[in-house]
Amino acid sequence: MQRNILFTIIVLVCVASHPLFASAQAIAKPNESTTPVGVSIPDSPVGAQLKWFVDVLNGKGLEGIETHFGADFKSKIPPEIVARQLESVITSVLEGGPVVVVSINSTSTDDHIRGNLRSEANGVVLTYNIAVEPDTGLIALFSSQVLPGAGPGRAATWVALDAKFAELPGTTNFYAGQVAPDGTMTAIRVRNPDARLGIGSTFKLYVLGTLAEMVRDGETDWEQTLALREEWKSLPSGVMQTEEAGTEHPLAEFALKMISISDNTATDHLIHFIGRERVEAYMARYNADPDRSTPFLTTREIFAMKIGDDQSLAGRYVASDLAFRRAMLAPGGEVALAVPSMVAAAVWTAPMWIDAIEWFATGEECSRAIVAADLLAQLPGNAPAGAAMRANPGIGFDRSIWKAIAFKGGSEPGVLNLTWLVDRHDGARFVLSVGWNNPEAAVDQAAFIDLAGQAFGLLADAPAP
Questions:
Q1: Is position 64 within any domain?
Q2: How far apart are CA 169 and CA 417, in angstroms?
Q3: Residue that finishes a domain, picked among 114, 146, 178
Q4: Could you give the CA distance from residue 285 to residue 282 in angstroms, rounded to a whole number?
Q5: Confidence of residue 19 (pLDDT cuts 50, 70, 90)
Q6: Looking at the structure, do residues 13 and 142 belong to the same domain, yes or no?
Q7: Rounded Cα gap, residues 115 and 399, in angstroms
Q8: Among 128, 149, 276, 339, which one is least packed by beta carbons within 10 Å?
Q9: What is the domain extent for residue 296?
Q10: Separation CA 383–CA 378 (nearest Å)
Q11: String of b and e for 216-250 (b: at least 16 CB within 10 Å)?
Q12: 142 lies in the same domain as 162
């Protein structure tokens, strides 16, 4: 899952994650079940499709897959695409199974069912989310994700989890805490509390928070439009870099793309709109060492220094004082004029200047950033900020435990940060931020995501306040 483009983090392992609603003319009739013994599958239209899904994962075969999906679903995701994804899951994720149903969400109905599956071959747990049309019984929504940290060998205590983090090369930190309604955080477990690491795109929470404050104070609103400028375009991740200069979008869309798909061009336009020094001032309220991340860089500026044509630019920037750095970033300055290379980005796999050219924070500071942004999102008129943070949960979650998830993560070679604010169904609220920097080599995203999942397993059992 390691991507060569800066700050992209794609951590969902999906079968088909599109929430599509279909219409069709006939009811599919799943074949006789070969489901191993587990939780009983209900005798209902959606239960029939769940039995079919489990049978497929247990080697029954994919013949006739097209008869299980509605026309609208198939128009958006062809059955052959779903079949290829399922084949990959069976062989590489589940190691052949067999698979058993281990839970069914209590909120499931005759038309919509959610829960968890487990591979008896390797202990990997998958979530499932299936909905059918009431009139046809054909699948309208179909998704499945690996549930990180739910397999065998998961940590039973925070001490055991801390030991697993300690085994990773480089430096790791994490902060797990409970969050009160007023945003006060109470630590549950902290690792390396003073380790201020590069956080990649998690820095975008500072940009979102600053913008939300401007809306709160009446200086702008989410519907105000901003035009794309060629000189502010960055490299992927994202999509806005492909649009023509002059294209206008509301600030709400810039914010949504910045957080949900980590759009770098959207981010840089917001930093220019807000003003670099204003974002710095906001960051300083939630970060005990803001100087480490000052000047507050755009993604394009980091690309220009790390993968631009002038290989000496990064070293000269690091060796300069604050005033000279600002001059290098100003219009007409060396960094501002430098052009990042897509060719270099495509082969970028080794860490570069991650201890000097990045955005830096501790686990607690990342946690403060997401809690602060969420408090602002709860204010009248600031709903788009909350929508942006909750559009992408980052990893698979057991939705029978967790009812709401806000997330932002970030990465580049050698850097990974994942930060969540989550609400449990009993009303308890938690924050978790995990970070890993290794200046010697790229980090193992899959292994780190599994550790984050193990942390959520421990938080699921944490006492309610």
A1: yes
A2: 15
A3: 146
A4: 6
A5: very low
A6: yes
A7: 8
A8: 339
A9: 220-346
A10: 7
A11: eeeeeebeeebebeeebbbbbbbebbeeeeeeebe
A12: no
